[in-house]
């Protein structure tokens, strides 16, 4: 563990580790930090801002927390988000998945959203990766119960070995009547029924998947939060992790370990 196994009522700023930074956190503020592995396992009543992980930001579940301006290299939250607000985050979805066995279902933001969780202005896109078991992948979440997903986008996603999407949805697969889906989009290379307020989101061609559309139709902030990556033809966060804190002239600490 790079920094601490458990933190409570703590403020952590500008720390970097080549392994998992924290195991569990509660009632804490964590900002401008980054990890070369899963960032942490779980969080309760925490605020995470401008953080970066090469794997999952949350390797387990998160409750009653706010996650803003964060980037993850594989997925944002592996398991569930309960009563959380998740805004302006980017799941790059790369690397291989390895499970004990059986069919697995995941989402780019979380496996499950529950209890009035809100996800807004988030992007899921990437190279995918191989899985050792059958993995069914939904763009934002496999299941959404009494939650909201709005102004989000599912971009380019190259499915690896044993990774499937035909039984999942571009935004979210399982929803209940108290879930709100609003003004979401997906590249039309992914199969689905075009509906901005439906489980697949509105279909967009690559020609329409532009900064102008994100800025003027989805209301994304390209002055302060996002910028356009011409090479990948998709948005990306302007700064995350220690680079973000450097832009604000804060002092960083570096933690190494295995």
What does the largest sheet look like? 10 strands, parallel
Strand order of the largest sheet: 30-29-25-21-17-13-9-6-3-33
Helical fraction equals under 10%
**How many beta-strand runs?**
33
The Rg value, from CA coordinates, equals: 17 Å
Specify the number of helices: 2
Report on the structure:
The protein is mainly beta and about 260 residues long. About 5% of the residues lie in helices and about 40% in strands. It is built from two helices and 33 strands. The chain has helices at about 210-215, 240-245, and strands at about 5-10, 10-15, 15, 20-25, 30, 35, 40-45, 45-50, 50-55, 55-60, 60-65, 65-70, 70, 75, 80, 85, 90, 105, 110-115, 120, 125, 135-140, 140-145, 150, 155, 165, 170-175, 180, 185, 200-205, 225-230, 235, 255. The strands form six sheets. The protein has a ten-stranded parallel sheet with strand order 30-29-25-21-17-13-9-6-3-33, with no helix packed on it. The chain is globular. About 50% of the residues are buried. The model has no long low-confidence stretch (mean pLDDT about 90).
Pick out its properties:
42% strand, eight-stranded parallel beta sheet, 258 residues, single chain, 33 strands, mainly beta, ten-stranded parallel beta sheet
């Amino acid at each position: 563990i790079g920094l601490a196994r458990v933190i409570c009522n703590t403020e952590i700023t500008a720390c970097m580790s080549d392994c998992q930074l924290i195991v569990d956190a509660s009632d804490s503020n964590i900002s401008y930090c980054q990890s070369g592995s899963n960032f942490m396992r779980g969080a309760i009543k925490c605020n995470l801002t401008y953080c970066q992980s090469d794997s999952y930001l949350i390797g387990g579940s998160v409750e009653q927390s706010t996650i803003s301006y964060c980037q993850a290299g594989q997925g944002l939250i592996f398991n569930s988000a309960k009563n959380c607000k998740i805004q302006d985050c980017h799941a790059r979805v790369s690397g291989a998945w390895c499970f004990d066995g059986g069919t697995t279902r995941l989402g780019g933001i979380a496996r499950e959203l529950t209890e009035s969780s809100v996800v807004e202005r988030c992007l899921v896109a990437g190279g995918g990766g191989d899985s050792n078991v059958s993995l069914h992948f939904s763009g934002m979440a496999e299941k959404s119960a009494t939650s909201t997903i709005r102004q989000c986008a599912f971009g380019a996603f190259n499915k690896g070995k044993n990774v499937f999407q035909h039984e999942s949805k571009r935004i979210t697969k399982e929803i209940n009547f108290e879930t709100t889906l609003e003004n979401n989009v997906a590249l039309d290379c992914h199969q689905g029924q075009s509906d901005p307020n439906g489980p697949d989101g509105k279909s967009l061609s690559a020609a329409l998947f532009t900064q102008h559309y994100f800025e003027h139709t989805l209301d994304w902030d390209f002055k302060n939060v996002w910028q356009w990556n011409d090479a990948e033809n998709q948005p990306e966060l302007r700064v995350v992790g220690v680079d973000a804190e450097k832009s604000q002239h804060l002092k960083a600490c570096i933690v190494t370990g295995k």
